[in-house]
Amino acid sequence: MSNQNLLRDEAATRSALITTHSYDVSLDVRQAVDPSVAGYVSRSVINFSASEPGTSTFLDFISSEVHSVFLNGKELAVAEIADGARIRLDNLQAENQVTVTGTALFSTSGEGMHRFFDPADGQCYLYTQYEPAEARRVFANFEQPDLKAEFTFHAMAPSEWHVASNGVETQRTLLTSDPAASRWDFAATRPMSTYITTLLAGPYFKAEDHWTGTLADGTALEVPLALYCRASMAPSFDTAALFTLTRNGLDFFNALFDFPYPWGKYDQAFVPEYNLGAMENPGLVTFTESYVFTSRAADSQYQARANTLLHEMAHMWFGDLVTMQWWDDLWLKESFADYMGTLGVDRTTGWDTAWVNFANNRKAWAYVQDQLPTTHPIVADIPDLEAAKQNFDGITYAKGASVLKQLVAYVGFDAFIAGSRQYFRDHAYGNTTLAELLAALSAASGRDLGEWARQWLQTSGISTLSSEIDGHDGVLGTVTVVQDAEDPITGRQEPRPHRLRIGFYDLDDAGALVRSDSVETDVSGPRTELAELAGKRRPALLLVNDDDLTYAKVRLDAHSEATVRSSLDRLSDPMARALCWTALWDSARDAVTPSSLYVDAVQRFGPAETGIGVLLNVLGNASTAIERYVPRPQRDAVRHGFLSLAADELLAAGPGSDQQLAWARTLAATSRYDAGRLDLLRGTLAGTTVIEGLAVDAELRWTFWHALAAHGQASPAQLDEELVRDNTAAGKSGHATAMAARPEAEVKEAAWHEAVHGTALSNQLLSATIAGFNTGPAALLGDFTDRYFECLGQVWADRSIEIASRIVRGLYPAAQDLDGHGGTPETHPVMVRTDNWLAEHPDAPRALRRIIIEQRSQLHRAFTAQAVNAPESRASAP
Length: 878
Prior knowledge:
Blueprint: H1 8-17, E1 18-28, E2 39-50, E3 57-60, E4 65-71, E5 74-75, H2 78-81, E6 86-89, E7 95-107, E8 112-117, E9 124-129, E10 150-158, E11 162-165, E12 169-175, E13 178-186, E14 199-202, E15 205-214, E16 220-229, H3 239-257, E17 266-271, E18 278-279, E19 284-288, H4 299-315, E20 322-324, H5 331-348, H6 354-370, H7 385-390, H8 395-411, H9 413-427, E21 430-432, H10 434-445, H11 450-457, E22 464-472, E23 475-484, E24 498-507, E25 513-523, E26 527-529, E27 541-546, E28 553-555, H12 558-567, H13 574-589, H14 595-605, H15 612-629, H16 632-652, H17 658-671, H18 678-686, H19 698-710, H20 716-725, H21 729-741, H22 745-756, H23 763-773, H24 785-798, H25 801-810, H26 829-840, H27 846-869
Parallel strand pairs: 1-10, 7-8, 16-17, 17-19, 20-21, 22-28
Antiparallel strand pairs: 1-2, 2-7, 3-6, 4-5, 4-7, 8-9, 9-14, 10-13, 11-14, 12-13, 15-16, 18-19, 22-23, 23-26, 24-25, 24-27
């Protein structure tokens, strides 16, 4: 059996033995336009040295066939050295050259070289995506981040295509043997890791511009810029706005990092069926094409796109110029880029809510991830590539970025940037670990950050901060911040040091709840008495972690919570309001307060929320609370009230406003489970109901059809007709979801078969089909529980990790209610079935077990909330 799961120990042994110098890679994709052609010829010429001549090592290459291998001029017997994933190289010399020619396969999973046929015009598009280790699906290489080398790429493709790579194009030559094709040659790169090499090929639309920067010595730095998207999406491609963001970002980061942009050109491509938000390939960044807004998008979506663009640009330094040695230190690039992306939006754009959206969205992701039993330290233990794949999560990205924000508060922004600059100068084009970064930051700040790193980077879990307050006659006496910080892995309390602000909020003469005072202080240990607050007037709202400086959940004291639940709409500061929304949500998720109270708060204050990013988030949270956390006997009534609010607010919202769009989306999502306002959806689709200013475009239409299909009110013929109207990639996804959402047993059976046993669905259509399958009456899905657990081993063995992960995560039987069996969360049949599978498969791949454990945890949280919030439990609720 081929070994695709590279172990950390194997990688360390290999990097101790060899040093890579250069790659020359040729790819022939001329036949990609023929769907019947599964692969393409790939040729790698690799120069490397070995510290111990006479020893052996191996190359990585996942291919359909290896045609030939030459090592130092001698042809090797392929059958004896290649196993489908690795090629063994024996009897190395001090200096070596290996040449591997084989046939690599086009992908529909978003891994390796992805091939996509545009349903709008039939055109073929190619792009590559490698992180953490999928370059080996395209060309033979030493696939690990610390074996950097210079790369020279060549490609043969149809002459009318655009082809791009990391380096600038140096030559394009018509092939005399094939007049319809050309050969592209690209300049050699600076040293980089295999996982950030890339190739883009197809009839893409291309726009060009340039950026000129001024270096510290006064010389100019010229950087060519380009933007790519599919030709059929070009009318929606807002290139002027994207180029402005790009130029502003390059101005900002070049000055901030005091290290000239190192990669020559800066291309950005927006590509179909992308598994990620974006990927930081030097010189050619790839993004999901969902950032090309072909339908109406809210302002928060444009801001999120800007954040991603600047996140990837920061990677040109954090991650590409200086790269982690192994995936244990993935945070070295992702946490910094996440922090820098938000900083960049705050400093270089007109948006003033970057940190509000970070607190409301990114940190919320981290909080959820950090409460799962599979949470891990920011500096994680990554023994193999499968574990690396799973660790692109809320801890590595958002918690790491949150902790960096706390570090900036702790050491000061200037020291943080000075340390970063020295880090780049000391390790340019090299690899590092935590130790090198801490050395640079400690030297710049004058602080020994070893203990800080242990407490923040090498422990797990999230602190919960609450306040104990006494006093009399409206005057504060003793105020104590209590920190609960149990590490879920060790079970020990690991209280962290927090530099934070305590905000005081009171009603002003106009009735607004405004900040009346603020105290910045340090909190450490289980209990911290804040003597500086004694004697101050007790505010209506005392907000721990005002301005969101630290990473922690906050429990409001009873007096402050009462203020928030009665006057949240009067809180004028957007950040403070977002933090209060988060505190209410955390309380509901943790079953401290009934989840129906969170829905009540959204119904009461959501219509007044002016921050569109916050509004979209709280509306989504309310939907989750209704469908997962509200007990089934109460759910219909709570959901119906929420649905009525969504319909009323949709009709009352300002024409063409983001709020109108938010309520339209919420109406559609809620209508999948409540048929009360399907008339409004049908009328809007048919044009008989006109809502002034509402853009009933393709994306919104498909969400309406999804809801109608879930109630059996959309026939296949109607959905097919809508697909003819919107014959695009997004249209095909919307159609697949709606078709699978129909509440018929044979429909669910067909969707299950396509997802689990079929191989025709691409990554995007697989997710769309799973989303539809999961919509509808839970009774229709009950029969699939046993089948789910029975198929796990085969799915994991037969599918790529990306596709397998989508199936395992998406089809977990989570649409359950606690009251259906009359027991406790632990005795629910799905919980028992899950626990039995975990007990019976202790040796299942760690990545597979992780997904199952996480899904179990989310279901257990839902059951716990339902149990606590049930009518008989309400009397004891806080």
